[in-house]
Amino acid sequence: MTSSLLPTDIEIDMVPDTMTWQHAIATAVKNIEVLASLLQLPVAALKKGQDAHQAFPLMVPMPYLQRIEKGNPNDPLLLQVLPDIRETDTISGYIKDPLAESDFTPQSALVHKYKSRLLVIASGSCAVNCRYCFRRHFPYADNQLSNDEWQNTLNYIERHSHINEVIFSGGDPLMQKDKQLAARIQSLETLPQIKRVRFHTRLPVVIPQRINAELVDWVNSTHLNIIMVWHINHPNEIDEAVIQAANTVRKAGVTLLNQGVILKGVNDTTAVQVALSERLFEAGILPYYMFTMDPVQGAAHFDVPLAQAQKLMGQVAAELPGYLVPKLAKEIPGQKAKTVLMPID
């Protein structure tokens, strides 16, 4: 079965329990007409984003698609993945490299902005194409993490003794096979300065089946502290399968955090943000960061003004205990750390 041949509404409700994460990716919906059919939405309305789809293709796996409400063109999960004609607008201040990562790339597949942490572009692929992605224009073709580049990465870490944490990012680092991930974790274990390995990932949220026995095996086999920062923006993204996946990695000793992005029309209300934090905690995931959107070209329609974001998080803080309130933050190019913004009462 291919994504272009998914035929019926029944199909979306009958994803087999035995589906592997690789099969979920292979059969992801990449066609706007198919998406419209499965979600019982008018094709003409969705086809308005065809030019945006050509520039940054639609990709939605079935386990995520199941959580989108049929017949609702404003579903908050749908808005995150649906190509929009506004993506083709040219708006001043919204650029291809909003975090100036090219200025902090000492060698291929590395981003070194913060003193003790090194970010590795482990994969240029994702399980879903989020329309607000700040790396939607990133030159992944020039930043392939081959075996030679990985050895160069280890050499770079050895030359910079203050690096004690490696962050695997992308794309999505969990798009790599577990055998390869295990080997790279083992090689990091040979560097005595490394204490922690962090994974920034959305894959277990989009496809909970990614948390499998093979992943648990390499997590359990390392003495390094493993942190996973999942990317969840809305409480509807957390279904029972996601909760089960979260429980599995927590039992393996993984510290599990969440970072989200404030997106207009998706999660820019107090009720949604409060529900998100509550749902995260029920799943055993601690709210960590809630970012303002990076001004990337093609995503201006998602942006929420800083003052509005600060007021929103002030309202959230008034309703939740402190440990459930994520830090409101903005990443500013050239700063030595993320900039934490104070909520406004």
- CATH architecture label name of the largest domain: Alpha-Beta Barrel
Strand pairing plus helix content: what structural class? alpha/beta
Could you describe the largest sheet, including whether it forms a barrel?
A: 9 strands, mixed
The average pLDDT value, as a whole number, equals: 94
Task: Estimate percent helicity.
Answer: 25-40%
State the separation between the terminal residues, measured CA to CA.
53 Å
| Individual helix count | 14
Stretches with pLDDT under 50, minimum 5 residues:
1-10
- Name the overall outline: globular
CATH class categorisation of the largest domain: Alpha Beta
Topology order in helix (H) and strand (E) letters: HHHHHHHEEHEHEHHEHEHEHEE
| Lateral arrangement of strands in the main beta sheet | 1-2-3-4-5-6-7-8-9
Strand segment count: 9
Q: What's the number of domains?
A: 2
Q: What proportion strand? A: 5-15%
The CATH superfamily of the largest domain appears as Aldolase class I
